[in-house]
Design goal:
Blueprint lengths: L14 E4 L3 H12 L4 E4 L3 H9 L4 E2 L10 E4 L3 H14 L4 E4 L5 H12 L12 E4 L20 E5 L6 H13 L3 E4 L2 H24 L6 H4 L4 H7 L6 H10 L1 H28 L6 H16 L12 E10 L4 H12 L5 E6 L5 E8 L1 H13 L3 E9 L2
Parallel strand pairs: 1-2, 1-4, 2-3, 4-5, 7-8
Antiparallel strand pairs: 6-7, 9-11, 9-12, 10-11
């Protein structure tokens, strides 16, 4: 957990953060570090106390007479709507946003409940939002003031949102280092179903196959398995609320995925019965692989630009304190920038393989200079980077 350096921001306090999990506490840490007065509220006294102790703000009970200018609801999506309405009613001068990863259901709940209040214009102060940031660990203990830096922050106004409320939410996103983007709720939910929610399910489904896997198989696990199952360690309770709340777009993507999988399974069954390379299996596999190549090529690369081709330098790194840092330092001395990297460990071995993505024009220089400094180079190939 880190605290961002003090920097000027346009958001003014007090800012009330409702929900002191990963996102809420990270918002509090970043704003507090910038000198903004942050109030914290959570239904769990323990969670709230931890957020206070790590420096994310002060308890809402200490608010005094000054009402918050902005309320950030950072609760799970199944209760976010009720929390937003509660904030709108209790703080009639405040702009309210939520950071739930499902937007249509929250907007619907807010507008429905707002109609039942004495003030029909209360919903004008609400603008939904969603920072595309997170990590496998949850809770205030995993919070980071820099969690949102460089990440997209989707701003989701509804038809009745006041312009000044939208501006306040966009300003918050910018102040936290994020890049604000505007979408309607439906577009947002369909987009995150494809790029976030279904990948979570696929990762979890794959990882579930490992629960009863023999140890001899797990001993062969490499970086590919670690990459594809990394997010399977996410909080089940939070993701249950997210996925149930975005069921329609998620199941639409799952249906398409199941169609592709069913076609592949049919042809592989035929090959299993008729023999390798039979039953149209070669063509079916090739279609899947080529479609995957086309899809991954569309994922934005570094700084949001088009994917670039980098060269891969593989270096054997002893599993000892300071060795990875020494590798990075020496690459800096050589003048080679690391565009991306992965680190793979071999079971039972006290070494790892660092796969460094570098500018193709500097790859050979990097290999020669690293070898001269005593590093063992494993391979050098050209592949897609980001």
């Amino acid at each position: 957990m880190t605290r961002a350096p003090l920097r000027p921001v346009a958001t003014t306090g007090p800012v009330l953060v409702v929900g002191t999990g990963l996102l809420g506490t990270s918002v509090g840490l970043a704003l507090s570090a910038a000198g903004v007065d942050v109030l914290l509220s959570d239904s769990s006294p323990t969670s709230q106390r931890l957020a206070v102790d790590v420096g994310a703000g002060r308890p809402v009970a200490h608010m005094g007479t000054e009402a918050p200018r902005l309320v950030v609801v950072a609760t799970p999506p199944d209760v976010a709507g009720a929390c937003v309405v509660d904030a709108l009613v209790h703080y009639p001068g405040s702009v309210v946003t939520d950071v739930a990863s499902v937007k249509s259901a929250v907007v619907r709940d807010v507008l429905h409940e707002a109609e039942l209040t004495d003030d029909p214009g209360v919903a004008a102060r609400y603008v939904g939002s969603h920072p595309m940031a997170g990590r496998e660990r949850s809770g205030a203990g995993a919070a980071d003031a820099d969690l949102f830096t460089g990440r997209p922050w989707v701003v989701v106004p509804h038809e009745g949102s006041a312009p000044e409320a939208e501006l306040a939410v966009r300003t918050l996103a910018t102040d936290l280092g994020a890049v604000p983007l505007q979408m309607d709720a439906d577009t947002h939910d369909r987009s995150v179903a494809l790029v976030s929610h279904v990948p979570q399910l696929v990762s979890s489904l794959l990882a579930a196959r490992l629960a009863e896997a023999p140890s001899v198989a797990l001993g062969l696990a490499g970086q590919g398995l670690r990459d594809t199952t990394r997010i399977a360690a996410s909080d089940p309770r939070l993701w249950t609320a997210i996925l149930a709340g975005n069921a329609a777009p998620v199941v639409e993507t799952l249906d398409a995925l199941r169609g592709d999988l069913d076609d592949l399974v049919v042809h592989l069954h035929a090959a299993a019965e008729q023999g390798p390379l039979e039953g149209g299996s070669v063509g079916a596999i090739n279609r899947v692989m080529e479609a995957g190549n086309r899809g991954v090529a569309r994922i934005p690369g570094k700084h949001g630009g088009a994917p670039q081709r980098f060269s891969e330098v593989e270096v054997l790194v002893p599993d000892e304190p300071g060795e990875l840092g020494r590798l990075f330092s020496e690459l800096g001395e050589i003048g080679v920038n690391i565009e991306d990297l992965t680190l793979d460990h071999s079971a039972g071995q006290r070494v790892g393989v660092a796969r460094l993505m570098v500018d193709p024009a500097r790859a050979r220089d990097a290999e020669v200079e690293l070898e001269r400094r005593g590093w063992r180079i494993i391979a050098h190939t050209t592949s897609e980077g980001s």
